[in-house]
């Protein structure tokens, strides 16, 4: 049972997620077996099924953990005591940085989302919608107060920004000409320029 305990201070669920993320990124979700995941994590199948009910649960958690992080950070930005323009810019840049920090997770999810059962897919969509609605509320706040233009509906502005975020995994490279902070700043500035009255 030693294999199911912490190894080098890393708890079993995190080891399983790290192994699954690496293997899903390298081979694809459908070409990765449960046996390969547990071997890479150094645990037993029993340990995997203790923490995750299935390989599909691992896939869902790969994305859900990033979304939870982003939701917590968005809630903090949205609730900050700062002008709405600053709060939106901070939130818009942060979602870029946290996506870049978790590029494998984002790529895996968008490539493999169709493998989720309808129920799990619905759960993920509900959580993602909650994030988008909080982000949209910042835009609407700025539009109501006259800081942002109302020429473009807030929903379309949200889709515009997140369309860019969702494609980061297809082109961003850590060794490329722009740092994650530079990309985040440029995309956040583009968003704010589009909202200027």
Low-confidence stretches: none
Judged by helices, strands and strand pairing, the structural class is mainly alpha
Shape, principal axes of CA atoms:
elongated
- The termini sit apart by 63 Å
Strand content: under 5%
Level of helix content? over 70%
Care to count the β-strands? 0
Described by its quaternary structure, the protein is: single chain
Biggest sheet statistics: none
* Average predicted local confidence, pLDDT: 92
Keywords: DNA-binding, Repressor, Transcription, Transcription regulation
Protein name: TetR/AcrR family transcriptional regulator
Pfam family, one: TetR_N
Domain HTH tetR-type: 10-70
Give the SSE layout.
Layout: H1 12-27, H2 34-41, H3 45-51, H4 55-78, H5 84-101, H6 103-112, H7 118-144, H8 154-166, H9 168-171, H10 180-195
Helix pairs in contact: 1-2, 1-4, 1-6, 4-5, 4-6, 4-7, 5-7, 5-10, 7-8, 8-10
Defining key terms:
73% helix, 197 residues, HTH_TetR, mainly alpha, HTH-type_TetR-like_transc_reg, repressor, DNA-binding, TetR/AcrR family transcriptional regulator, 10 helices
Short summary of the structure?
The chain has 197 residues and is mostly helical. The chain contains 10 helices and no strands. The chain is elongated.
């Amino acid at each position: 049972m030693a294999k199911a305990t912490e190894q080098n201070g890393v708890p079993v669920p995190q080891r399983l997620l790290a192994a699954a993320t690496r293997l899903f990124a390298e081979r694809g979700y459908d070409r990765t077996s449960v046996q390969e995941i547990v071997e890479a994590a150094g645990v037993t199948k029993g340990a995997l099924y203790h923490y995750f009910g299935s390989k599909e649960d691992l896939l869902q958690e790969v994305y859900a953990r990033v979304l939870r992080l982003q939701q917590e950070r968005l809630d903090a930005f949205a609730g900050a005591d700062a002008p709405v323009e600053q709060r939106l810019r901070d939130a818009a840049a942060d979602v870029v940085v946290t996506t870049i920090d978790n590029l494998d997770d984002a790529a895996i999810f968008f490539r493999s989302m169709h493998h989720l059962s309808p129920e799990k897919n619905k759960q993920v969509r509900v959580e993602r919608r909650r994030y988008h609605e909080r982000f949209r509320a910042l835009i609407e706040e700025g539009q109501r107060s006259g800081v942002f233009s109302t020429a473009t509906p807030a929903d379309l502005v949200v889709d515009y920004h997140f369309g860019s975020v969702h494609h980061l995994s297809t082109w961003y490279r850590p060794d490329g000409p722009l740092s994650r902070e530079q990309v985040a700043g440029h995309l956040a500035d583009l968003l704010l320029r589009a909202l200027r009255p």
